[in-house]
Amino acid sequence: MCAALGAFAVVSSGLAPSAVAADIQSKQWYLDAMDAEGMWKVSTGKGVKVAVLDTGVNPDTSSLKGQVLEGEVSQAVSYNATKDYDGHGTSMAELIAGTGAGGGLQGLAPGAKIVPYRVLTKGVTNSTDKENTPSIADAIKAAADSDAQILSMSFGGDIMNPDEEAAVKYAQSKGKLMFAGTGNDAESKNFIGYPAAYPYVVGVAAADDKGKVGDFSEHGNYVDLAAPGLKVPTWCDATFRAYCPDGVGTSMATAITSASAALIWSAHPNWTANQVLGTLIDTAARDWPKDQPSNYLGYGLVRPRRVLENSSINPANTDPLSYENGAGVTGASPSPSPSAPSSASSQAPNDTSGGDTSAAASSSNSSDGNTQLWVILGAAGVVVVGAGAFVALRKRRTA
Fold first, then answer.
1. I need a surface site. Which of 165, 368, 383, 391 has the fewest CB within 10 A?
2. Is the pLDDT score of 393 beyond 50?
3. CATH-assigned architecture of domain 8-309
4. pLDDT recorded at residue 107
């Protein structure tokens, strides 16, 4: 599957529709874990626009009414931007900027606005749609020329596309911050996923409520950050009649990371994309050296609250991903040591974005020597961080 016809990074895991839509917000476990209510006292994402490149965004769901800026999409790439053929793009938009009205999904950055783009992917099958739907490269370039500061791309494919890479570089030159899901095929082929693996695109992995990387989440040296991506509610389909509560995928992790960036940028509107990303990296939850990012969780789990609490400023023109950018990528991780567990998820560090527990503790597993370190986040509680014993050193990307 080529990147030009990418797949959307969400997995249906035997999903059943939510019986009562109003109950769906109770399934958004990460909002409490990340202390969304506390963050909203400082920032809601107001003033920040997020371009959602996806299956289209339905602006008429209760949670997105007034949140979608369809008039800001250039006519050249506006084809069916607000007609979601799958429900995926609308779900991502709600996770980012949904107001939660009418029992809909509550976005992490409800003050932000969405600029919608439908992009050409494998799911576009109608011949007319194929002819008129903008390519991923064209949509990225259009978003780069828009007022959107953040590009959220919850899709991926396994073939590098020169036009897409050129579009990404153009968007970077325009000061945009780009996020993309690393993909959901780690248990089968674990391919290198694009656009996540392009220079200047932040590759996002999916973690559960304990901060453990999902078995499905693609790993390699292009993973930069991780965010909640298991048991995250989404629309079941394009009928928009019911939510499915147990979605899994790097798609949702990408949307939540994009929303995290929106919260920070809203609080610091004069910051550059480099500064927003730099603080996300600096404050990410990890217990391994910052200069040795994990092939599973990158620099760690996003914690925008930490940035809002302590706003240290990074250099405006310093690329936080200079260690990776301008180089090649590898998709496979080094083989674990003989004593390490065999599954990818158990090799990866464990971490969460927060909780309500107030005590700190530690324990060890004698079978694999992987110490579980509890790190106090602050007033809200603690996070679990797995020891770095099985953290694979990210290799430099070679040109």
1. 368
2. no
3. 3-Layer(aba) Sandwich (3.40)
4. 98
Mean pLDDT of 326-352: 37
Residue type, 43: S
Higher-pLDDT residue of 395, 299: 299
Distance CA 57, CA 223 (A): 26
Share of the chain above pLDDT 90, in %: 68
d(CA 282, CA 299): 8
Phi, psi of 275 (to 5 degrees): -70, -40
Note the pLDDT of residue 322: 84
How far from the centroid of its chain's Cα atoms is residue 391's Cα? 21
What one-letter code names the amino acid at 2?
A: C
Burial class (CB in 10 A: 0-12, 13-18, 19+), 300: buried
The Cα 150–Cα 115 span in angstroms is 10
162, 188 contact by CB (below 8 A): no
Distance CA(214)–CA(241), nearest Å, equals 28
Strands 372-376 and 362-363: antiparallel
Domain ranges of the chain: 8-309, 344-390
The residue assigned the tokens 């040795």 is 292
What are the backbone angles phi and psi of residue 209, rounded to the nearest 5°? -70, -10
Q: Letter for the amino acid at 213? A: V
pLDDT tens-place string over residues 3-49? 444 566 554 444 444 434 458 999 999 999 999 999 999 999 999 99
- Check whether 381 has a pLDDT greater than 70: no
> How long, in residues, is the chain?
399
Could you give the angle at the alpha carbon of 200 between the alpha carbons of 199 and 205, nearest 5°? 90
Give this prediction's pTM: 0.82
Alpha-carbon distances of 328 from 222, 226, 343, 396, rounded to whole Å: 9, 21, 26, 7
Q: Check if the beta carbon of residue 161 is closer than 8 Å to that of residue 2.
A: yes
Q: Which helix (H) or strand (E) holds 117?
A: strand 113-118
Which residue type sits at 328?
Answer: G
Q: Picking from 115-119, 120-124, 230-234, 298-302, which range would have the lowest pLDDT averaged per residue?
A: 120-124
Give the ranges where the chain is alpha helix by DSSP (H): 29-33, 36-40, 88-97, 127-132, 136-144, 162-173, 250-267, 273-283, 304-309, 344-347
